[in-house]
Design goal:
The complex is a heterodimer of chains A (about 575) and B (about 250). Chain A has about 575 residues and is of the alpha/beta class. Chain A has 20 helices and 22 strands. Chain B has eight helices and no strands. The chains are: A alpha/beta (about 575), B mainly alpha (about 250). The structure holds fe (ii) ion (FE2) (3 copies).
């Protein structure tokens, strides 16, 4: 079967195409539109997916939307009625969105994408998340836990994935209804801490390491956790179910102190009482979330009796919590969909129709290089036409040597190779790389290249055979997560001493393990860097400037290069050096 | 077009003393300019990527590099003038560069017409600001320097349009110029219309909220067994094509 999956209209729209059980392409719309977390119908991503599969829309068997829109509308209506008379603004906003466009979604999708209504199917939000993790995991039998802000009406679900007569099945065991949501609690506190919801959650996670979980008692009154892994939000502190713009009430500020003004300075270590309080709140939030997730995993184990766990939904992007789930949770094996947020729903919707509905073979997600690539010849032509000076390397070894040499003397540069990554993380295809040994490099990348907050950590990529030298593998249950940077690992004493640019203040790092079968050019670069410095590790951050989506095309990469202090840029086998252009 | 330019000039003269009244305001305005310039850099780069005529490509690319440099210059001056905390706030509000995908949307001729008209407006704007800041230790020079590039952008887009015109595409070029001018004016009207529409729809919805919703809310309250909490058990519908056709 040829199935196209799409997600849209909340945040992070995406498209994915699965042909006879093979994931041919998957990409977020933001990479094409250059609008961060673009939620609009992924017209350009769909066009790309069809091109990559060399198919026309008429040849597609089904187009699967990742959720049931009318069920979502019903939830919104009911919660508006319940909140009456407090929710005028949210009512106005919701009605304008829904009456204006969302209710006519079916015909809009058909018109914009050029498909027929006969081709169009609708999955369920959490089922799409579940399918996105389970169906491309290596497990036959697994508990599947999906956790996000909210889907149609569920906020957290426990499924059981298994095979019946060779066909994969997904059974829903439990679901938690809106507004009881760990995801929305996390987002509300993200807003309280002065960051943008749906993208500031990473910053909260980074910030949490600078504080102590001093507010756990207060958090216990924000939400209660049942022994059965359920969660109940105390509505006194939250307004996301009726307020259009503010997700917490004055009661929360009375409990935790005044909220942080967005953009106000954050410097750590800090003697400032408020700054320390923000870090402590972040630490308490992170700990509360982790503890809750551990209870939830216990329940998932009881419900399914499975040894393996699949995770998806926005909360599964919390790599610190994922580590604790691996180390302390009841499962032997853990897999997380790398595009755990709503973008991943597009892939899940397509996989569900392909593997469960039509019994196509299940794919294995061994790489996230599922986006667009650019032929080296077209890159050279572009550079020649534009008059950009560059050096072309016909030998990969030489290219790796040159780049490694530059990094070993403190240079920072872009590394653009092959297809761009699926999901929010750059894993060596659209990366900015640097020497991990000096904190000063980290500060320079934060200040002059990414233009982002100083307290945010950078992640390392490491040769698989060297991982144990620098990072504590623990019970090694996160080995399936390590290639995708989905969990953190404690640094060893050697790493703490030698890799100060990539070890976070709490002594951990969000590691990407580069195995023998993955991205050969990036692996060669790590080896070359090791030959020069004795360290098979690099600092890796996504190739984008602050608040912009990750670059997709060579021209965009060049744009980021000239607008920042990057010293060099590699476009496939072409090397451009800043002081020579 | 001339009227357009002199309108820009008099408008700038009128509002500049208010808009640029303090270092803080200046810093914030310059940060905004930096974002706009970075956005045009991205659009010009996309144009360079998509067009395959070597000469055009090189011109678009150079234009992109100019705009990227302007973005850097504006950002640097904004940092010099602003206090760190104010700046973080303003950069937070509008630091990201947005591409409008103009080349794809407009096609070559209309894109050129757009660039020409926008650059002309930009040039007039920066020239007025240069005059406004005559004697200012850094900003006069900044606007003067950027103005030079803007003049080049106007000149090259004008000559490209002229060349197209001379190659027998006169009608097309004229039409493009007209349609872009109309489109710009229409866009401002539409923005105004949208604002009025927004206000109107808000009024209708507010009245609905006060008059109609209470009845439903009351019925809901009477029949409601309270919002669900705790784990819910539900059987997933049988996975079938007919079930999946449903939106609910
Ligand atoms: Fe979701
Ligand atoms: Fe400019
Ligand atoms: Fe310009």
């Amino acid at each position: 079967m040829k199935i196209l999956g799409i997600s849209a209209f909340f945040h992070d729209a995406a498209a994915a195409i699965v042909v006879d059980g093979v994931i041919v392409a998957a990409a977020q719309e933001e990479r094409f539109s250059r609008i961060k977390q673009d939620a609009s119908l992924p017209v350009q991503a769909v066009r790309y997916c069809l091109d990559e599969a060399e198919l026309s829309m008429a040849e597609i068997d089904y187009v699967v939307f990742y959720e049931k829109p009318l069920r979502k509308f019903e939830r919104i209506l009911v919660s508006q009625l319940r909140a009456f008379p407090r929710g005028l603004r949210q009512f106005g906003r919701a009605m304008r969105t829904w009456l204006g466009s969302r209710l006519w979604l079916k015909s809009d999708i058909c018109k914009e994408l050029g498909c027929s209504s006969q081709q169009l199917l609708f999955s369920e939000h959490h089922l799409s998340h579940a399918a996105s993790a389970y169906l491309c995991s290596p497990f036959q039998d697994a508990a599947i836990v999906t956790i996000d802000g909210v889907g149609e009406s569920a906020t957290t679900s426990v499924f059981h994935g298994f095979a019946e007569e060779g066909c994969p099945k997904i059974d829903l065991k439990l679901e938690l209804p809106y507004p009881h949501s760990i995801g929305l609690l996390y987002s509300s506190l993200t807003a309280y801490l002065g960051f943008r919801v749906n993208e500031g959650e990473y910053k909260v996670m980074g910030l949490s390491s600078y504080g102590q979980p001093k507010y756990l008692e207060e958090f216990a009154s924000l939400a209660s956790v049942g022994d059965d892994g359920s969660l109940e939000i105390n509505p006194r502190y939250f307004s996301y179910h009726y307020h259009a713009t503010k997700s917490f009430t004055p009661a929360l500020e009375a409990l935790l102190g005044p909220s942080r003004i967005p953009g106000s300075p954050l410097e750590y270590p800090s003697g400032d009482i408020d700054m320390q309080r923000y870090a402590d709140v972040a630490a308490s939030l992170q700990t509360f979330t982790e503890e809750y997730l551990l209870v939830l995993m216990g329940e998932a184990k009881r419900q399914t009796q499975s040894n393996s766990l699949c995770l998806a939904g926005g909360v599964a992007l919390n790599s610190v919590a994922n580590r604790r789930i691996c180390e302390e949770g009841p499962f032997e094996h853990v897999f997380v969909q790398p595009a755990a947020g709503d973008a991943g729903g597009a892939l899940g919707a397509a996989l569900y129709a392909s593997c469960v509905l039509h019994n196509d073979p299940r794919p294995r997600l061994s790489s996230v290089a599922l986006g667009q690539s650019f032929a080296p010849a077209s890159i050279e032509k572009f550079l020649d036409d534009c008059g950009v000076k560059y050096t072309k390397y016909s030998d990969d070894e030489e290219l790796a040597d040159e780049v490694a040499q530059r990094m070993s003397v403190g240079q920072v540069g872009g590394w653009f190779q092959g297809r761009f990554e699926w999901g929010p993380r750059a894993l060596g295809n659209r990366s900015i790389l640097a020497d991990p040994r000096y904190a000063s490099t980290r500060d320079r990348v934060n200040r002059a290249i990414k233009f982002r907050e100083k307290f945010r950590p950078f992640a390392p990529m490491v040769l698989s055979e060297d991982t144990h030298l620098w990072f504590d593998l623990g019970r090694n249950r996160d080995r399936l997560l390590a290639p995708f940077m989905c969990s953190v690992m404690p640094a060893t004493a050697a790493a703490k001493e030698k890799l100060s640019a990539v070890v976070h203040v709490d002594g951990t790092a969000r590691v990407q393990v580069v195995g023998r079968s993955s991205n050969p050019r990036t692996r060669r670069l790590l080896q070359a860097f090791k030959k020069k410095t004795g360290v098979g590790v690099l600092l890796n951050t996504s190739m984008n400037l602050k608040d912009e989506p990750i670059c997709a095309s060579p021209a965009e990469a060049y744009g980021a290069f000239v607008r920042s202090d990057m010293d060099f840029l590699t476009l496939e086998n072409c090397l451009i050096v800043k002081d020579q252009i | 077009m001339l009227a357009d330019q002199s309108l820009t000039r008099s408008l700038v003269r009128l509002v500049a003393p208010i808009v640029w009244r303090s270092d803080r305001k200046m810093a914030s305005k310059l940060a905004g300019f930096a974002a706009t310039e970075a956005g045009s850099a991205l659009d010009m780069l996309k144009a360079a990527e998509l067009c395959d005529d070597k000469k055009l490509r090189r011109l678009f690319f150079r234009h992109a590099m100019d705009e990227a440099r302007h973005a850097k210059m504006f950002r640097a001056h904004s940092r010099l003038l602003g206090k760190e905390s104010d700046l973080q706030e303003s950069e937070y509000m509008r630091s990201s560069a947005t591409r409008q995908n103009l080349y794809q949307e407009l096609g070559l001729v209309r894109f050129l017409a757009f660039v020409y008209q926008a650059e002309k407006r930009g040039e007039a704007h920066f020239d007025s600001l240069r005059r406004h800041f005559a004697g200012h230790p850094s900003l006069e020079k900044l606007f003067e320097e950027i103005g030079k590039d803007e003049r080049f952008h106007v000149a090259y887009s004008k000559s490209l349009l002229k060349r197209l015109q001379d190659s027998g595409r006169e009608k097309e070029v004229k039409q493009a110029k007209r349609s872009i001018a109309v489109q710009t004016a229409w866009a401002s009207w539409r923005r105004a219309g949208k604002r009025i529409g927004n206000v109107l729809s808000w009024c209708v919805l507010a009245i609905t909220y006060v008059v109609v919703v209470p009845v439903f809310a009351l019925v809901q309250r009477i029949t409601d067994r309270g919002a669900a909490h705790g784990w819910q058990r539900r059987r997933l519908p049988e996975g079938s094509v007919s079930e999946m056709r449903r939106q609910s």
